[in-house]
Amino acid sequence: xxxxxxxxxxxxxxxxxxxxxFFVDVVGRIRSMVNEKETAENPFTPPVAPLFKPEDxxxxxxxxxxxxxxxxxxxxxxxxxxxxxxxxxxxxxxxQKLLEGPMSPTLAPALPKDTKIEELxxxxxxTAFIDFTNTIATNHPGGILNEQATIxxxxxxxxxxxxxxxxxxxxxxxxxxxxxxxxxLLLLPLQxxxxxxxxxxxxxxxxxxxxxxxxxxxxxxxxx
Length: 224
Prior knowledge:
- By secondary structure, the chain is α+β, with helices and mostly antiparallel strands.
- It has two domains: about 1-45; about 60-170, Alpha-Beta Plaits (2-Layer Sandwich), CATH 3.30.70.
- The protein has four helices and five strands; from the N terminus they run H-E-E-H-E-E-H-H-E.
- It has helices at about 5-40, 85-100, 135-140, 145-160, and strands spanning about 60-65, 75-80, 115-120, 125-130, 165-170.
- It is extended, with a radius of gyration of 31 Å.
């Protein structure tokens, strides 16, 4: 093959390679710009709203976890959240403590690994509805005591610390389930049960102040 043809082919190959590289770069830039625009206008992952404000005061809470020694089913660990003005945010902070697990080495996690909370809502009648991901059931070890520990760690942690929450309805994967792992019924909202713990009932102020003695409304006596 003549030398000038070889040189021409080499120049054409180089030009083709440069053109392809330029085209790929342009396409990549366009895709990047489109993705940035879609993210700005229609974000797939909305920003997580904070559960408290910097000025919110600390609030002591009791978070319930199973005991490792088996002496009783649940006990409470003293932890701290922040007293948000919104009840739902306080409830979410308590549940976050449950998800993180206990600080004490003598206690066991109450929730299975990879459990997450999809949604939490508190109705006007005081019932908290919590929707957990399916992992709370699929990753659960099973057994009636383990199931009770998981369910009442959730129920007690919320109802003990937040008197506005009267009972808890647990949903799994966005739907109502009969049980978590075949034992404890979840069809009805569950109330606090401290009989399986060593924790005394919380001290709650009465809703209405009642006078200990009725006022004396008898006529004033006259001195003889």
